[in-house]
Structures are given as C-alpha cells and as structure tokens.
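Hi all, a correction to my earlier message: I attached the wrong file for Phospho-sugar mutase. Here's the right sequence:
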Amino acid sequence: MLDRARSWLAQDPDPETRSELAALIEAAEAGDEEASAGLADRFSARLAFGTAGLRGELGSGSNRMNRVLVAQAAAGLAAYVVEKAGVDAAPPTIVVGYDGRRNSRVFAKDSAEIFAGAGLRAVLLPRLLPTPVLAFAVRRLGAAAGVMVTASHNPPDDNGYKVYLGGPDDGSQIVSPADAEIAAHIERVAAAGDISTLPRSLGYEVAGESVVDDYIEATAAVAPAPAGAAGLTWVYTAMHGVGWETFSRILERAGYPAPIPVADQLEPDGAFPTVSFPNPEEPGAMDLAFAQARESGAELVIANDPDADRLAVAVPDPDADGGWRRLTGNQIGLLLGWRAARRAAEDGHAAGASLACSLVSSPGLRTVAEHYGLDFHATLTGFKWISRAPGIVFGFEEALGYLVNPETVRDKDGISAAIAMLGMVSEARGRGATLSDLLAEFDDTFGAFASDQISVRVDDVSTIGRIMDALRADHPSAIGEVAVERVDDLREGVDELPPGDVLRIWLVDGSRVIVRPSGTEPKLKLYLDVRGDSSADAAERIAALSAGARELLDAIG
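and the right structure:
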C-alpha cells in the first residue's frame, strides 16, 4: 500500500492532495494505524468508471476524485474516441463543461489539455454552466463525445466526471458497452504509470457565446409565456449551483416575470454553506425557499439542483408543515407528461411518438400515453436509458429528472422543465386555476396515482445482496393485507429490458412494489405505487402498502 501511495505521490500535480498524501505516508511509515487505514481506504480500490462516469469524494488516491484520476480518465476517453474514429478520420471533437464545485474547472482544463494533446479537437465551454448546456453542446458542435465535470446534487466534498456520446447517440450519456471499453482504456493508462508523460497541449478551443445563446433560444421556445403569466409571484433557488445565470436569461427571453430569489443560494458556491446535502429531495434543503415564499406570499416555488439538471416544485398547502409542500417527482413527471402527450395529439404527431420513464417511476405515465394514443416505454433507471426510447417526446424519472425537449437535449434538463412547468402554471392562471387544481384535474382524468419510497441504508453492503437473495428464494405471498399476483425478476430479462438486479412485485389490486439496490449509495430502495378511485383512496392505499413493505423487510431481518 505504501508503494502505491509513493508512486501516486510522485505523479500528483496538485499541491493540496500532495500535502495530504505525504502526511499520511509519513505517519504510516512511523506506525500510525489510523494513517495506514487511511491509505488503505484510498488505495485498496479505484473509483470505478461506469455508465455514470466517475463520481466520488475529493482527495488523494485511486479511490478519490483528484487530478491524477481525472488525467487517467481523460487519456482513456481520448484513446477510445480515437479508436472509434479510425486512423483516416478528421480529428474528432470533444467538448468539456464544468460546474461550480471544488476543482471542477481544474479537472475540466486538465481534460481539455489532454484531449488536445491526443490530437483531438478539444472545446472547453466558456465558463461554469449547467449540465444541460454541455449535453446540448455535444450535439450543437457535432462532437464525438462530451465531458461534464459535476457531482450533481452529491454532498459538498464530492465531484464527478460524466461522459456523453455524440453521433448516433445524440448527446446521450454513455451506456454499455461503451462504458466498459472506455474503462479498459483508462486501466491501460493507469497501468502505464506516470501521468506527467501524457501529451498535453494548450491548443484547445474555448467555445464562443453562441453555444450558450443557442441553448437559451431553444429552451425559451419550450413554453413562451402566455397571458396568464402576468403578475405571477414565485420563488426560485439555485441551491448554490450554476442554474441562475442561464435560467434568468431564458426567463427574460420567454417573457416570464422574474422570480423572488433565495439570495443566499443564488450564486455558485462549492462549499454549499446553507445546506448539508444540496439535493432538493433532502429534508431541509428547501427550507430557505419556503421561508422566502411565506414572506412574499408566493404562488409557487421552483428549485434546481446545483448543476441544474433536476427540477423541484412546491405549492402552498395549509395542511403541510410550514404551509408549503414539495411535489413528488412522480407528480411533476405526470403533469409534464400530460402536457407533452396533449400537445403531440393536438399537433397530429401522436403516431410514432412516445412517453418514457424509468421502471421505478409512476405507472400513471403509461395511462397518459394510452389515453392520447402514444407509445410508452419503461426503461432501466437513468436517463442514459430514458433518452434512448424510440420516438420519445417526453421522459422522466421519479428522482426529479425530466426531459421535455428531446430535439434539443437528450438528457434530463431542470431548466427546460422549469420553463415547461411555468407555462403550465401560467396557462392555468389564465383560467383562474392553480397548480394544485391541475393535480386534481389529472386525477379526475386519469385516476389518482400515489407513490412512496423506502430507503434502507446499510453499513455492510452485503446486507443488500442477502435481502435480494431472500426475496428471490421465497417470494412473498402478500404485502400487508394484499395478496401478491406475480413477481418479475429482471435479472432474468423481462419486457425486453436489459438484465438488472431488480424485483418487481405485482399485487392483485394493481399495486406495485419494486426492489433494487441503489446505484450510487449503500442503500436498498423500494418503490411503491398504487392507483385509487380518488386522492384520498390512493393516499390510504399507499399508506397501507408502505406499512406492509416495512413489515416484510423487518421479517427478513
């Protein structure tokens, strides 16, 4: 372990991580057990490159995000792009973006230099920008690939490296087998040794403002402000992220009234000083926004996560603690899916068009698609799959991700989704209705769908495998008072989905429970969905199903 650490130290160009690692090595050499454990944590493994790229805690070592690991990833990705292009092709383009997290610009600049040194046309976005702008730029610039340096809504000490592919992939995130092929190239670079021997060049380009301007123009066109937007009072928070500068220009272009901002969270700040976990889904993350909404008498709260690829929405609710209630990702997704389906039908484009969502998201989207004569696709979790649904006009996942303009961005986009939501709210205002009224209208039209989620965090990840094995070995005959109708094991391949470690449990009353390990955290997740005759009936059903699911987990132990 000490040899690995010394080898890493010798090639690390970052003074901060060099100092951190040198101190650990010195203490471990002196027999400090805590330092030795720290080295083992950093060097007994390396951050795995997969379909989500890289993501992890900042720090020294192969199991952390740092300049050595990023340089290896950039060189591996460059080798993959060159290999796919062929020896006689013109130099392919790779575009690089970055957000406001710690080291994001440093990692992006290192990558651009390595891409240019590998003979590629490397284009660095002009400043810190939302992730959707990078996804847009991959298509706009005809790039073979793109990299976004971000950890999205992860804790403050994390960063990441998200990879997109151009060409036939249209700027979507990578999927298999590209992930494994890129990972193999990265491993070869890492095995070769010192990153200081990697060719670098300052001959990368900095993208012009026209790329950002084109994204703004296309996104403003998603929902130009109707007459009902006049006088709308709403609150916005960027959650210390990069969304506001771009979003504010789009609002002006589309004609919406400016929001009342949460000033303490409006500008990028990688320390995230007002939130411990900058994710709108986390308890407390939107407290400042709710306080601002109460003070200003707002009709609506809109939030983006730090890289602005997710959207959260909240409405006044006298029954909620503090008088405000955040809508679930499924509620927002169903409303936006309703909007997309209705527009496709009205425009005569329903034939061949489709709605798509991850298999753990609300089954209500299928009902909407069937109502308007559109196709429907349920995919594995992640927008790398959702964005590839044939004929997609709208896609979403329950974790606050929405794709409302696939002709522009083939990834989740919290800014275009916010514009679409403002359009819906404004149209409703024009006829004297609220967003809460729209939710009730949805229930009246399609049925009352309700969802819940149970997350079980574990200290030992083997516990997750043990629970999954127990459920596979002995399928439950009932959950709570409702009998189980059938169990789909997606590991065996179901509904033409790629195999996955997922169990889908159908109950005789039409309810559904999906069990899967988290892809990013040591958690087992259960997704619960019901359909009721009314919102009250659905609420009662989901509460009973949730209680039954918890009893099932307790019985497994």
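Sorry for the mix-up. The chain has four domains: 1-44, 49-195, 215-445, 448-556.
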